[in-house]
Amino acid sequence: MAQAPTPANAAPAWRQFVFFDVVPVKDIHDLGSSPEVFRKTPEISTIVSSSVGLIVADIHGSVYLVNRDFEIANSWIAHTGGRVTHMAERRGILITLGEEDTARHPFLKVWDLQTFDKKTGAPLLLRSAKVQSGNRPHPVSTIALSATLSYLAIGLGDGTVILYRHLDQSIYSTSGSLSTLPKPRVIHESATEPITGLGFREPTEETPHVYLFIVTTNRTLCYQASGKGSGGTPTVVDEIGAGLGCATMDWKAREIVVARDEAIYCCGTESRGACYAYEGLKSRIHTHRNYIVIVSPPFTPTASAASATVRNFVAKSVAPSGSEIAKVTVFDPENKFVAHSGTFPEGVREVFSSWGKLYVLSNDGKLMCLEEKPTSAKLDMLYRKGLYLLALNIAETQKLDESHIADIHKQYGDHLYTKGDYDGAMQQYIKTIRYVQPSYVIRKFLDAQRIHNLVTYLQELHSLGLANSDHTTLLLNTYTKLKDVSRLDSFIKRESLRVTGEEGKDELPFDLDTAIRVCRQAGYFEHASYLAKKYERHEDYLRIQIEDAGNYKDALMYLRRLGAEAAESNLARYGRAMLDNLPEETTDLLIDICTSLALLTIETEEAETSPVKQASGGPSYLSYLALNRLPTASASSPVDTVPTPTAALPTPAKPTEPARRDSVQDASRASNSPPGTPTTATPAKAQAANTVKRPSPRLYFAHFVDHTGHFVRFLETVARKRWGQTLENTSEPLPVEADPNADEQAEKRDQVAVWNTLFELYLSRPPSASDANPNSKALALLQNTTLPYDPTHALILCSTRGFTPGLVLLWERMGMHEDVVRFFMDRHHDGDADASSEVVRRVRQYGAGRPQLYPLVLRFLTSTPALLAKHRDDVVDVLRVIDEEKIMPPVSVVQVLSRNGVASVGLVKEWLMARIQNARQEVDTDQQLIASYRSETQEKLRQAEELADPDRPRVFHVTQCSACQGGLDLPAVHFMCNHSYHQRCLAENETECPNCAREHGMIREIRRNNERLADQHDLFLSEVREGGFDALASGFSRGTLNMSRVDDVAA
Prior knowledge:
four-stranded antiparallel beta sheet, alpha+beta, protein-macromolecule adaptor activity, 18% strand
C-alpha cells in the first residue's frame, strides 16, 4: 500500500482554496441512495461523457445512456459474452472496444446514437471489426478519436499504436459490409514500453495539421497524422512517460498533460512545454475546463502528512487506524493554486465531467458532484485575502468581460490606496478607464502630494480619447502649477489619436478649446498660440497674439497668410488695435486685401531679437489643489522632453512697437526650448481658386478713427488700385484688373462711400506748413466730374464745415443758383464787404437762365442806402434787363422800390417814362386790333344773314374747279361757300363742300372737346388757381361760361 507523503518529499505549499462544493448526487426516485446505474460500481468498466448524455459501460458488455437526472434512458449489449474496455464519442457516433468470448482479439464497434433499432431499441450498429496487430492478441490500453471522426488511434499493451485514417468516410459510406473499416496502419511499435496515453491535437489557424500524441511508460512522442510530411516516424518530444491513466489532453486540446509523481508536464508537438511541480503519487488525471483533476492512489493517512486535507481528515475521522483513503485535488495549472482538495475513504472509481460539472464516483457507489462556486464568490474570497493579482488571473482565465476585470482592478487599486501605495494604486486605476467614472479616481488624488499620480491618470484619459473639457482643464492646470513645461510641451504637441468621422478627420486626444483657454489663463501664451495656429483656430490665435502677448507683428503676418476671406472677419475685430500699434503695416495689409485679386504675398523678415522677458501669468482657478505645499524640488519631474517644432517666422523689433507680454514659461524654463509654432499657416480653403473675392472697404472705415492720415492713404490707394479713380484724372478711369465676381451695384456703393469719406477727410485736415491750402483736394474732388461722390452728402459737409468754394460749386452744379445768390446776400449781412459785388456778378452769370434772380437782386441792392450808393449803376442795369426781358410789370417794380425810403423817384424816372410810353403804344395797338376784330365780325354776320335769306339770289363767278383746278364746265356743282366743282370730281351723293368739310370737322371736334371740358369743374378750378384771369379768359373763349351751354345741359 502507498504511504502518505512525508514533509520531506511533499509538494510545494501552493495556495489552496475551497472553490468547489461537494454535493452528493442521489437517485431521483430514492433520495436515500445513489443513482441506480452506479449501485453496482465494481462492475462498471468505463464512463465517458458525450453529446447525448453520460455513457456507462460494465464488465458484462452492456452500455447505458444516462440523462441529466442520472436515469437510464437506454441500454443495450454492445459486446456479447465479454466486457467493454474503452469508449469514445464524437458527433453522435460512439466507438466501443471490448472483449467477446467468440474472439481472441478485441472487437471495435461503431454505433449511431441518433438512430435506434425499432425492434431492440439499441442504437444502430454501423461497423464491427476485430482489432488485430499480428497473430498474438494484445489488450487495448487506450484509445483516441479526433473531433472530426477522421482518425482513430488505438494503443495496445505491447507498445503498438495502430491508426485508422478516414474513419468518417468509411462510417458514412452506404456501400460495404458491416466489417468494412479502413485498413489500420501501425505507426509506432515499442515492445518494452506499453502505451499509456493517446491524444489528438486538433488543427488551428496557426497549425492546420492533425497531430497524435503517444505516451508510453518512458517517453512522450508526437506523430503528424495529416498534411504535408505526415506518415513519418513519431518524434520524441520528451523522455518522460507516465502510467496508465496519467496522460490526457489539456482543455484546449493543444498539448498533452503528463502526470508523474514529481510534477505535471505539458508537452507540445515539438518539445516539452510548461512544467508544474506538484509532488505526490498519482493514479490518474482528468481535465475539467481549465483545471487538472489529480487522483492519488489509496494511501494510509497520518497526522504528520504534508497535505492539510489529509491532516484534517485524520483529525476528524473516526475510522480505525490503518484504513486507506484516496485524495482528489483540483489544480489550476495556469494560476498555480489548488481549487479543491478532498478525501474519499472508499477510494475513487471514476472522475468524469458532464453537463459542465465535475463528478467523482467512489468505489462504494457514491456519486459526488464538485460544483464550482460562482466567480463573484471566488473573487470575494480572494479580496478578503488580498490576492488581487490572482483574482485578475482567474478572471482572464475564465474569460470574464472587461467590466468585471475593471472592477477587480478598482478593488485592487482601492486596496493599494489604503496601504499608501499611490503609484501602484494609480496603475490599477488606469486599467479601469472606460468602466469607472474618472471623478472617482480624481477625487482621491487631488491632494498636492499625490498630484503626479493624478497627472498620470489624466494623461492616460487623454491618450485614450476619453477626456472631457474638465479633465483637460485639470491636467493643464496641474502642468502649469507644477511649471512642468516639458510635459506641457509633450501634451499639446501630441498627435491625433485616430481617424474618425465620415470625412476621416483626425481626432485630438483633448478638448482643443479648453486647452487654449487654460494656457491663456495660466500665461502660457506660446503654447496656446501653438495650438491655435496648428489647428487653424485663427480667431483664437489672433486673440492670443494681440490681446495677451501683444505680438502685433506676428499677428499681422498671420493675417496676411490667412488671405482675404479669413482675414476679413478677423480684421473687422482687431483692425483698430493693429492700427494703434502698427499703423503703416496694417494699412498696407488692408489695402492689399481690398485691392488684390491674387493671394497675398509674405515678405521675408529678418530675425527678431528677443527682449528681456519677465514672467507674468494669471492664477488658475484650481487653487484648491494646494500646490504651494509642494517642495521646490518637486516642481520639475523627470519626464521625456519632446523636440519642439520650428518657431514662428521672426520679426524685427521696432522702437515704436510696444513690448510683448511674454508667457510664464519663459521664467520657469531652464533648458527646455519654447514650443514652436508652424512656420506657415494653412490658407483658407476658399482661396484655392485663382482669384479671391475682395471685401468691401467700408468694413474697415471704423478702425481708422484715430488715424486720419492713414485713412486718407487707404482710401486713395483703394480707389486708384481697385477702380482706377484719382483726383488728378478727369477723363476715363485708369486701367485696372477687372474682378469677374464683383457685384456692380455693391461696387458703385463702395465707390460713393470711399469718395464721400475722402471728401470729409479732406475738409477735416488741419493746415500745415507744407500745405497752405488744406482744402484744395476737397475742391479738386468736387471739380472732378468723373468721381462718383454723393452731391447731397457733399453739400451737407460743405455747409457744416463752412467750405464756401465747395458749397457754391455744388449749388451751381445742382442748378441752385438762387441759393448761391442768397448765400452771398447772407454773407453781406454778416459783414462781408465784397459779398454784394459777388451777388451782382452771380446774377449776371446766372441771369440768362434764371430771370427770377433779378427781382431778388433788385430788392437786395435797394435794401440799404450804402448798397444803393455802391451799386447805383448795377441797379440801372438790373432794371434794364427786367425791362428787356419783361420779367416784372412796372407796378411790381415800383412796389419793390417803394417798400422803403432808400430808392428815389429820380433813380427810376427815365425807366418809368419809357415804360409808360411803351404802355401807351401797346394800348393804341390793342385798340386798333379791337376795331379790326369788330369790323370783321360785322362782315361775318352780314354774310351769315345773306346766306340765311332764301329769297336772296346768289351769283357764282367761279371758273375753276376747286378740286382738280381745271376749267369749270357743265355739269358743275356750286356750294354757298363760293367753292365750285365738276360733278365728276365729287363723290356720289356728296352734299357738303369737301374743302370746308375738313375745316368744319376740326371746329366741331374742338367744340365737342370744349363741351366735355365744361363738365370737368375740378380741372377748371385748378387752372384758375394757377393761371388766374388768363384761365378765366381762356374758359370764356372756349364757351365754358356760356349760359346757353348751361341751358343745353339742363335740357
